[in-house]
Amino acid sequence: MAFDFKKEYKEFYMPKNSPEIVDLPPVNYIAVRGRGDPNAEGGDYQKAIGILYAVAYTIRMSRRAGHEIDGFFEYVVPPLEGFWWHDGGEIDCADKSAFNWISVIRLPDFVTGDDFRWAVETAGAKKKLDCSACEFITVTEGLCVQMMHLGPFDSEHETIAAMDGFARENGYEPDLGGGRLHHEIYMSDARKVPPEKWKTVIRHPVRRRVQE
Question: Which of 27, 141, 183, 207 is the most exposed place for a label (fewest CB within 10 A)?
Fold first, then answer.
């Protein structure tokens, strides 16, 4: 049976509908960076998603292409994720045109930089895509508060408020900024599921409150 990150790491992909504190280990990703409204038809965000999946599935199917990866095992391609921020401060979900984003898909630990570069080149040639914007990045989120958000993205502020309140009540403070970002994991296929049933993991960095 293929390894499924969502099932093997349920605490990170299927959190409760109430806030909780987690400590995240380093994770490797395929990443594409951009700016602007993610809903823009044919915009940079939509193009980034196509590139990410092209490279992700090229790695997933590498054996069939004759590329042997040391330590490779069969796995399910993990869900799309995104890191989001606005210049100079708090994230404002209503101001979509000013979003900065890093769209990512998790990589298995056996994928090396050489394997990644092979996949970028192979996906670009096979799909006739410019995949040069893809990066191999490692993110160590550390301490975070997270919660499963149910519903459309425009109602995320309610979930974020609950997370912030929970963190403060339990001796933590929000710690957005300095490279620590608002993080979303998209557990529903927005093409097939109505917005009121979308499941999105929302994660915010926190730090322990210093006792005065």
Answer: 207
Contact 138, 27 (CB under 8 A): yes
User: Using 50, 70 and 90 to split pLDDT, how confident is the model at 141?
Assistant: very high
Under 8 Å between Cβ of 165 and 18: no
What is residue 157's three-state secondary structure? helix
pLDDT of residue 212: 61
Beta strands 199-208; 182-186: pairing state: antiparallel
**Separation between Cα atoms, residue 192 and residue 160, nearest integer Å:** 25
Tell how many helices (H) and how many strands (E) occur in the chain.
5, 7
Q: What CA–CA distance (Å, rounded) separates 161 from 155?
A: 11
Which residue segments constitute the domains of the chain, with CATH numbers given? 5-208 (3.20.80.10)
Extract the tokens encoding 194. 């109505």
| Residue carrying structure tokens 């999105």 | 200
